[in-house]
Amino acid sequence: MRLAAACFFAIIAAAPAYAQQGDCAKAAAPADRVICADPKAAAADKSMAMAYEALRARLTEEQRGALLASQRAWLARRARACDAKAADFAPCITRQTQERAEALAVPKGQRPLFLGGARGLDGRLLEFEQADTRAKRGFNAAMAQARTHALKEARINAAEPRFEYQADATISYVSPSLVSGRVAWYEYSGGAHPNHGGYGVNIDARGRPLRLDDLFDAKGLSAIEALCLAQLATQKKERLEGAFSQEDAKALPGLLAEPLRDVKNWSFSPAGAALDFAPYVVGAYAEGDYSCAIPLRELRAAARPGAPLPQ
Q1: Which phi and psi angles does 232 have, rounded to 5°?
Q2: Element (H or E) spanning 272, and its range?
Q3: Which one, of 120, 205, 128, 215, lies nearest residue 160 by Cα?
């Protein structure tokens, strides 16, 4: 393949879309060789390049610089995540690149807030370009707070050479009465293993954080909790197999009483509600994340009349 865009390739030091923009005969880095040789990796790389260019065209010069810094940080992170000697190297490159393409595909009407400028800091938060409702303005304020928190983490851990902090936001529902999204974060600051988690950002018509009391009375919330607990118990059984005992099942409601009622574990979409729980909330770190999904029909049946639910 011939070099179609040598300048762009040189700028970012490792092209998004190497197979399209680079000379595969000269590919030296393991990821570049995989992209040139594996059709799935090449397709993912092409999708990422298209998303990158489409987003770049919408940004100011200052924002383009932040995008470039974020892309370079992501390339380094992908290199660490995918072991060139492992049997699943090509699938890993493909998966990581597909996820990056999705992260770069920012919908119109939304603007990325790239986290960068400090060592170890990366990610992409979101805000509304036209904050024409109180809910949107409240969401933008929450994103500004998330950015401030990320910068604070970078300052606190400036002396830790292995420090990494990444935060990425999604927006799942938008209406004048409710804006809902989620921030997923990853942090490593030198401990035994990295930590990760997330929190919902749910803003009501007044521009304030949503309260579960706005949605449910005690009976309705209990109905939702029962649905979620049933799903979590099934997940625990599948992951732990015979290690999940009757006593464990009986203890689960008490363990989750507070997390289920924390609106930061909730997010909303046209399909209903999702409750996401980070490691240690439902089980050991090795068990990973747990989640439950409440269909919109069940959500409406349990909600107060006039509750600001997705339509």
Answers
A1: -65, -40
A2: strand 272-277
A3: 120
pLDDT tens digit sequence for 122-173 = 889 999 999 999 999 999 999 999 999 999 988 898 888 888 888 999 999 9
The half-sphere exposure of 149 on its side-chain side, counting CA atoms within 13 A, is: 16
CA atoms within 13 A on the CB side of 25: 3
- Residue 212 DSSP class: G
The SS3 call for residue 275 is strand
User: Does residue 89 contact residue 83 with C-beta atoms inside 8 Å?
Assistant: yes
Burial class (CB in 10 A: 0-12, 13-18, 19+), 208: middle
The owner of tokens 């996401």 is: 276
Residue 97, both tokens: 């690149």
Task: Show the domains of the chain with their CATH numbers.
Answer: 1-105 (no CATH), 109-210 (3.30.565.40), 212-302 (3.90.640)
